From TrEMBL, chain A:
InterPro entries: MOB_kinase_act_fam, MOB_kinase_act_sf
Keywords of the record: Metal-binding, Zinc
Residues at which Zn(2+) binds: C92, C97, H169, H174
GO terms under cellular component: Z disc
SMART domains linked: Mob1_phocein
Region (Disordered): 1-20
Official protein name in the record: MOB-like protein phocein
Highest rank taxon of the organism: Eukaryota
UniProtKB/TrEMBL annotation, chain B:
Coiled-coil region list: 24-72
InterPro entries in alphabetical order: Striatin_N, WD40/YVTN_repeat-like_dom_sf, WD40_PAC1, WD40_repeat_CS, WD40_repeat_dom_sf, WD40_rpt, WD_repeat_striatin
A single GO molecular function term of this UniProt record: calmodulin binding
Gene3D superfamilies in UniProt: 1.20.5.300, YVTN repeat-like/Quinoprotein amine dehydrogenase
Classification of source organism: Eukaryota, Metazoa, Chordata, Tunicata, Ascidiacea
Record domain Striatin N-terminal: where: 5-137
GO cellular component terms listed in the entry, alphabetical order: cytoplasm
Protein name: Striatin N-terminal domain-containing protein
PROSITE patterns given in the database record: WD_REPEATS_1, WD_REPEATS_2, WD_REPEATS_REGION
Amino acid sequence: SSVMDPEPIVRRNPPGTKAEDFYKWPAQSFDEMDTTLAVQQHIQQTIRQDFTDTETILTVPPGQDEGVWKYEQLRQFCLELNGLAIKLQTECTPLTCSQMTATEQWIFLCAAHKTPQGCPAIDYTRHTLDGAACLLNSNKYFPSRVSIKDSSVAKLGSVCRRVYRIFSHAYYHHRHIFDESENETYLCRRFTTFVIRYNLMSRDNLIVPIMDDASNTSNNNSVDQ
Amino acid sequence: KSPYSMPGILHFIQHEWSRFEMERAQWDVEKAELQARIAFLQGERKGQENLKRDLIRRIKMLEFALKQERAKVHKLKFGTDLSVEQKHNESNGKCDFPSTVSKTNELQTTNAHMSWRHGRQLLRQYLQEVGYSETILDVRSQRVRALLGNNYDAPKPVENDNQVVNGNISDEEKQSNRCVWNQLQLASCSLNLTPTLTSIFLPRSAGFVLATHSTDGNTESIFKDFNFLNAEDNDNEDDEDVNMQDEDVTDDGDHQRKARAKTMNGSLTCFTGPIKKDLQSMLDTLRGSEMSRATEEPYNLLNVFHSESLPFTVGGTHMGDESIENALGLGALAGLTVANEADPLSYDIAATKESYRKTWNPKYTLRSHFDGIRAIRFLPNESAVITASEDHTMKLWNLNKPLPSKKTQSLDVEPIYSFRGHSGAVLSLEVDADGSYCFSGGLDASVRVWSIPSVEIDAYDTYDPAVIQKVLVGHTDAVWSLSYSSTRQQLLSASSDCSVRLWNPTSNDPLIQTYTTEGIPTSVCFVQCDSNHAVVSHTDGKINLYDLETGQISLVLAEGDGSKYIDCSVNCVASHPTMPITMTAHDDKHIKFFDNSSGKLIHSMVAHLDSVTSLSVDPNGLYLLSGSHDCSIRLWNLDSKTCIQELTSHRKKFDESIYSVAFHPSATYIASAGADALAKIFV
């Protein structure tokens, strides 16, 4: 909680903090942040200031390593996708959605298993998010939060691709859930802008129409993972 | 009439026979057991043989380096050959050795510093090959510094998560480490080795990288020595190694030397006799002095090597010092001294009595959350934990299934289940007494009851909606604290909506009672030895004891004075399992102890360098674990109220670092959870 002027600002959410006061301290400039989690702090702070301002949230601070920036952004996306997953849990069952699909042309197989499996959509969603959590936190590929190996940066693209399908399934099969979640978080449009800007996915795969963005639907009839 | 009868005799014989059969069966079982034991011991012995072999290699390596250094030093100091000194120092002085040494000295004068550093790098390489990682070396070198008496308080959190800061090592341990080193020196002297022999071992030993470093000064000198052995004339017939018994001693000097070279070039087994004996005694000493750390003998040896390598910088070069500092990974921290100016932390590291109790070491790191972990709890009957995070999820982890890894020192674990349901940060967590249900409280004001999946499930199983049992609705603001009573089978929750609620989680109408608090509660806890009462702490420092039947405050443990100072909040209350004592963790760095019957403050101590965030009592009521935003966890002896161990753990996010600590209710595990999204388990 923030305090009076002569006292130094202590940025904590201690027990007893009310929900409305959570994170309600004066913003800290990125350059002043001296913890190893500075990039995460900065991204979350910017989102709290205005979650609709996609541009500012995605703008990399000067001098910041781009690999780490992409990594931390992706962590934050996976974190926020939980909200969509929770809403889907109530409605998306193996009976309603026995496979992970978006538009009719694609069926997605879940890559979290030894051999790719045709998981029902809710399992696909959970497994993909859990798998992304394991990969992004893996000591083998991402041992540090302040520097990322180039070989590990390459992994971010496949995570993005799989995670995007959660959006596309929600959009085409649970439209009201998608809209409700999107209005609260602007998550899908921010994600789309993010993957385009950093070339993490090919535009062909971005099948959820985002306001002004041109959408391309693929004509292939094949299974993908 | 005779006492014997036919039936009686028959019966007796049958009885005896069956008894014999039974005994035979027992003996078979015993035999099998003993055979198994034999196999096990043989396996152990094999392991120790390998260990011994490694140690031999290392000793020889170090001896060689040592002798080189001495030669250099002597040369530099006195500008003369080592002839006199060398002969004196070595048990079997080889005549030509001094001249060889002087030659190599001339060669190496220019490479003096380089070769020392090379030596160190080589040592590191060998160790890496054997499997010791940098982190272990850093950990051990920190312990070395503790041994050498460089006390330092909790340093700033560094990149390496696995550092363990162990206050002072007890005197007994220091002594035992010194003993070990003395023994080693004795052993190495009695090994009767010369640097020429060691130089041969070095290029020839399997896996040693030295041979591939073709261009540095060390190898040159070594091969020079080798050449000496084959070519030069000498008269050292009578200083033959005791070990070289297989060889024919002929009158022809050259023939003898060549034969010796051949034999030495052959297997190492001819040396193993007396070496084995000495090393065996060395290992026994190691084992004897380190009772509770059976697996760490090689580490201790390494530890000792590091400590004694420091005096080698007799040359006093700055470069040498730097490389030590770098090697020990201290960098700027080396200059830190104990920063204990204002507050005499009222603890002292317990005396040698404690030296046999276990020291906790980090074992598992739980990586998977995307944001800080606010609470961590063990399952009562499994090696498993549940974590609750600000990333809105809780996760179940099975410690028996860590990720496969080459290093056994620190293992990573992946979760086997993610609990999704909260729509905001999950702030509090409790597990019931048999590990079938867990309870969570969140920023979204909900308290949720979950059924805990089996710890054997596959991480990527199908979704089972039955895991979500209930959502307890009632609070209107963040639920910061939960407490479960197994005797009552009831749950208490404290929320920043200024209320504490009592629930029966299994009933259809779960809310039993709501207690309105004056001020915002921060933590609630059933009194363990009297579940009709509960303790509640508040942001203004108030600590109240409630009677749950009447709903009234039965005793005020602390008045609370929110107006007087900023850091008056009490972050956590804990109840002693057997005595009517409440322990509290304060924002002002204190831990306080209150008597539940009289309400008096029994003890108060400055426990950390920053706000104390979390407490956990061990199930026997002997120890207390505390976590703080100063990035350290401290273990306290509850009788003496002294700190027996400090562990540095977790990095900061903004100004927070450690949120939660926990003891396992029945096994020897402790856990810590932090703002860096990691949880650590110590054994």
